Amino acid sequence: MDQFEALVARAAANGCCFDCGRSCHDHPWMSVQHAIVLCIQCAGVHRAFGVDVSFVRSIKLDTLTVKESALLECGGNPEFAAFLDERGEGVAAFLDTTVEHRYFSSIADLYRRRLAAKLVGGDLPNDLRPLSPRAAPPKRAPLSTIEWKPRLRAKRCEVCLKRFNIVRRRHHCRRCGRCVCEPCSPRECYRPLPPVVKPSRHCVSCVAKPSREN
């Protein structure tokens, strides 16, 4: 039994991406600092956060270090979810924000510090630190000022970094203007964002779990 199979045997929730809920059985990745399982698309989003916030590794393809393996053993998707519920944040509220705001939040920072302390047997911190300007999530430009990347210049999806081809076609995220593939912008977002008031395509980085709002 490999490490991923052991994770899933311990808790079925470890077989799905913490961010989007997709099955991770084919290509499981992990965020080292949070010890959670991610799909390959969401791992591409986490890669843009910087290694001090979320360092991603392939559970099956990479050779995990002793520390990374130990983090998976003491962490996992259910553990992070339980922490959010205990702290009053709640998993649903945490996942209802954009991916950047989730992991640049004070609650995510606290979990990272608690997990690191737990690994070395230290005292678990309980203080919520204010975010430094360096760690603050990037501000989004108004839709009217977004410059869409020309399709022909985009050779790879700007989220998962896979090459575009006749099957993996280009799409534009209506929020950030990046060229992304279909798996990285799986469905339209029904949140009205002026001046766009009709459903429009958003990448998983901008809206991780788009849903229809009445």
Structure write-up:
The radius of gyration is 18 Å and the shape is globular. It folds into two domains: 124 residues, Annexin V, domain 1 (Orthogonal Bundle), CATH 1.10.220.150; 74 residues, Zinc/RING finger domain, C3HC4 (zinc finger) (Herpes Virus-1, 2-Layer Sandwich), CATH 3.30.40.10. It has a three-stranded antiparallel sheet with strand order 2-1-3. Helices cover 28% and strands 8% of the residues. The C terminus is likely disordered. By secondary structure, the protein is an alpha+beta fold. Helix 3 crosses helix 7.
- Structural class by sheet pairing and helices: alpha+beta
The amount of beta strand, in percent, is: 5-15%
Give the count of helical stretches: 7
CATH topology label of the largest domain: Annexin V, domain 1
Shape: globular
Give the overall average pLDDT. Answer: 79
Number of folding domains? 2
In N-to-C order, the SSE pattern is: HEEHEHHHHHEEEE
The share of residues in helices is 25-40%
GO molecular function: GTPase activator activity; zinc ion binding
Protein name: FYVE-type domain-containing protein
GO cellular component, one term: Golgi membrane
Pfam family, one: ArfGap
Attribute tags:
two-stranded antiparallel ribbon, zinc ion binding, GTPase activator activity, disordered C terminus, alpha+beta, 214 residues, Znf_FYVE, metal-binding, Herpes Virus-1, single chain, Annexin V, domain 1, three-stranded antiparallel beta sheet, FYVE-type domain-containing protein, 7 helices
